[in-house]
Predict the 3D structure of the following.
Amino acid sequence: MSARPTIGVLGVQGDVSEHMAAVERAGGTARKVKRPDELTDVAGLILPGGESTTHRRLLDYEDLLSAITDRYRDGMAVFGTCAGAILLATEVLGAPTPHLSLVDITVRRNAFGRQRESFVTDLDVAGLDGGPLRAVFIRAPIIERVGPGIDVLATVDGEIVLAESDRALVAAFHPELTADDRLHKRFLEKTATAEVAR
Ligand code: GLN
């Protein structure tokens, strides 16, 4: 891994500055990405939360859908949080078609219902040193299925809320809203294998 990998944060909507600050604290250099040319030399891309349908419109508007797909095929790593995980999924229950369709998971939008629209809980995360991880859920999806090569890292009431593959991390919650940067660090480690275009 280069000393400080450059990590893009999709800057169309959501907690962009919080993710950028977490990347910097975790040892990366953060870059806001709003246009395809800003993706060329990033080792990884974070897709923040927000509203996945709004994100999708902006991705289409800026022609970012195919640019992100191309860079992922080249070796860029991706980290989707909440709506960002919905954007990455190959199947979205509650939406007519998937969006980027890069990570083989099925997600259900707004899956915790009105009773648990927003909540905070401590997660036991597989392979994460340092004890439970505080996780903030806001109108969160759940991951109903993970495909081959994707490992479940954490669950809430038996529902999958965190999973990973070699180059992807998907979280149903908002790791950028706490001071705990362990997931951003884990994501930076994934970029070590990313072939960065120069
Ligand atoms: N409910 C949003 C969606 O389905 C996701 C919410 C979030 O990102 N906090 O797109």
